[in-house]
């Protein structure tokens, strides 16, 4: 499927249709963004005036804790509030991407005929700068298209979690009893990134213990902070039966209010924009630097060290 | 512990002592590298003429497959051949690093008094460009210090695995029965990066099945390649009793011979040097670009898109 988008007029038309709630236009814009097409700067310019309204919520946690189920339950909860909701499922291990895949259709489930819901999975593996490049641009599309809430769900643990934090206004970290106790959480570095802890599958044995462990870890971690700081609440849920999801929605809203009252929301969005600009700039410069070429041969031969080679690469190609 | 290294003479002395086999000098050089100190270019220049001899072997796989045990068994096998062996254990999730830690002492185990063995754990989390920055420099230290074999062991799965490939001459991917069958391997992307598959804990049920699955996946994956290509062997081991380790050593040697015969070794080292130079150059440029500052405010306000902001950041700071 060729994009068929050639100029600023086409892009403006596409953005207009996306803002009118046409899912195909939204999907098309995300594809343009995801492919890193030449029209990307054009698309970004057309989106910019319409951005800044969506609430971005990150959903992360180890495999098996019930992220998809929780995300779906959250979508339902926000729909009951009359909000338009979009989901980006970021899968750093998958080479597949796009709205036409079986996975997305399965995920859509009961939202399939609801024009107020948009679900898209994004593969970031091997992509231009990975998550740090494509996902923020997809977020901008959904923001400009008028979605009130955008849920960014990660698959797997690790680097991607940290990057989600750079994107989200509020980050939910999901755990399940017996899978992630406090110490594991600390080890995985999720204590630092969580704004709200969700202990899912709370009907299972050990849920209370996991919740207690987390609260204790939170109290330890916050002890040495000066000034007012947000203390991540620990919410127990059974996502499969939507139990406790209302409390998650409340916790997200409380976190947002707290951030707004303490200047944190503006601060986070500034950091997000800075990271985005810097990532794009570095990527552009990387392209202009070009390959190391002959310099690599000199380094392999021991005639040049990589730092000296890097300086030569910069001075040769950026003409400083 | 302050470094106390101030000039080219000090660095040359340190490199000389490292080449004489003094472990403290090696450790000191790695610390200098790891801290990204101002002396880094000086250290790199002093190391360059002595590099290019070490054989670099990556050891990776999911948690619980027995990477540390296998690494220790490999160290023993290479020592029996009279080779000097170094280990870098890269832990992207740990904030701790350095030779004085309990972990390294435990790991040293029976090698603690052997001057032909050097073991160092490196924390890459939150480090300057992570693994892509510090680990290649530590490798150069060990290479210049005259270690014949450097084993780079990763902790955890994901991004770090892919980066190990960029470093290693040969990459071992470890699996254990019932933990990673063929499909899981394919999903984790490890089929593409493995030069040698090791099915560890082969005394457990399911080992033969795992090995068969892997061989089948390998045959599928290689079918569409043109030209000569290396077919990763599948070796069964019980690392705890050193069973099968000799075959792993043989497989590594055969892979090396194959690469040398097909020009792959030179090719890989060129790619490694290129990646290293480019990573350093990008990092240097990133520093010169500086923070997005006021541009981020314009992007948050919707007055500017991030691509236009990135161009302004570049033209403002790199004076092209």
TrEMBL record, chains A, B:
GO MF annotations, alphabetized: GTP binding; GTPase activity; kinase activity
Keyword Cell membrane: no
Keyword set includes GTP-binding: yes
Keyword annotations of the record: Chaperone, GTP-binding, Hydrolase, Kinase, Nucleotide-binding, Transferase
Coiled-coil annotated residue ranges, if any: none
UniProt family annotation: Belongs to the SIMIBI class G3E GTPase family. ArgK/MeaB subfamily.
PANTHER family cross-referenced by the UniProt entry: LAO_AO TRANSPORT SYSTEM ATPASE, LYSINE/ARGININE/ORNITHINE TRANSPORT SYSTEM KINASE
Entry-linked NCBIfam families: lao (TIGR00750)
Protein name as catalogued: LAO/AO transport system kinase
Organism: Lentzea xinjiangensis
